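Q: Hi! First time asking for a complex rather than a single chain. Here are the components, and I think there are two in total. Is that enough to go on?
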Amino acid sequence: GQQVMQIPQYQHVQEGEDFTTYCNSSTTLSNIQWYKQRPGGHPVFLIQLVKSGEVKKQKRLTFQFGEAKKNSSLHITATQTTDVGTYFCAPFTSGTYKYIFGTGTRLKVLA
Amino acid sequence: SAVISQKPSRDICQRGTSLTIQCQVDSQVTMMFWYRQQPGQSLTLIATANQGSEATYESGFVIDKFPISRPNLTFSTLTVSNMSPEDSSIYLCSVGGDYGYTFGSGTRLTVV
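A: Yes, that's all I need. Here is the structure of the assembled complex.
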């Protein structure tokens, strides 16, 4: 089936460093959602992006939708240990009429 | 957003047996979704369950293996039938859509 690639697959950072995960699609996306899953937990909805070039911020998290609506990124400024987890993008494509979860980026923050 | 109660939270089952997972939502929803998450992997949609109609299964998933019930707008069950060790996974139910999905806490299934 269709798979949405995220890079990197894993990222270890020192606390205080920044972190970015990228979500890439070969097709144009209608919109995209982002989720965080803590170790042992379930995915929790973070945000949805709809417009080309859209940028949204949640405290230290910045989400961006590409101008061509084929990619998206999540940037965390000054990571904290509470940021540990796996971040998934979930784009919606009109071709499938559903949200497909990306491969995920597992973030580990070293204190 | 909706609150979902999912149970059991975990189970260890013998191969060849079946397990039924239940999800109760605190509000009425049109569609409920069932996902599988294998260890260290992403989420894979198993099926979409609408009340009053047969569930719609994704490629690679069949009703005989994963029968779903949706008796009303707040409840659904997923059964994992004739289990094998390859079915060991986390199973999650979910509701939502264009404004984000809410997930149950998941069922961690181990088949021995």
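A: Chain A touches chain B at residues 1, 31, 33, 35, 41-45, 48, 88, 90, 92, 98-104 (CB under 8 Å). Let me know if you'd like any chain examined more closely.
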